[in-house]
Amino acid sequence: MTDVDDNGNVPRRSVNGVIRALVSLAFRMLPRAWRFRAAVVFARAVRPLVARTRAYAVRCELKTDGLPETTLDLILGELTRQGVIYDPVVEVVGLELLPRSAEDGPCIVLGAHMMLSTLFVRRLVDEGIEAATITAETDMRIPGTREPAKVILAPSRGLLFDVRRCLRDGVVVCGMVDRELLERRTSPVETANGQLLVSTALFRVALRTGARIVFIGSRMRDDDTVVITLQRAEETTPHGLAAELAGFVDQLLRTTTRTSHPRRSSGRTTATRG
Question: Helix or strand or coil: residue 112?
């Protein structure tokens, strides 16, 4: 039974909960193969509503995701939390940069807060690559599944130790290194959307352990295709890597995949069903 307040009104939180439950029920009624595309279509329809929310205002402060990316990420995240199973359909550019065996050495995948990049966790799992995500979400699930994701909790005193341990064990570590506020070991760098504050702590760990550093970013094209781009880092100092990451982000923002295709060829890929 739905709660009411002292004035007989249904609290907004309860209304939102009912709406989320109804939307997730509607998606469950669709064939599994249709759900991701239905989420993309639904996201396009509700963009004007999302543009008025606090969640979008917060994303705008990060200067990395636009309205299309934010809307789809919010919807996909909610579907995963509600236990709706779906198979992401994305284009991945640079998948060959990831390690395929222990002989390839440790690897860390780092980017700015382009939130559709979280779909890459699902792709890693489908490829049989063990990965750990740095996050504050203790109950994070693999996108589109009900399976818990392997996480490295942050903030945490043992964060860097846990990262080193995962790299040593051959686990691909994924994290986002841009920050809202200037803090210790943070480099301010310029992009097309303004200043980006990049934490260099994970760069330092990667350099000390000899890990391969791969940048990640994600955008949506005009046809609503999600494109995840990987690029191997070349710089060898923390501040150099911060600047290189900013340049990578800047390129994605300036050449926006909404109107052009990635430079490297890669066919559209559907996540393997779990």
Answer: coil
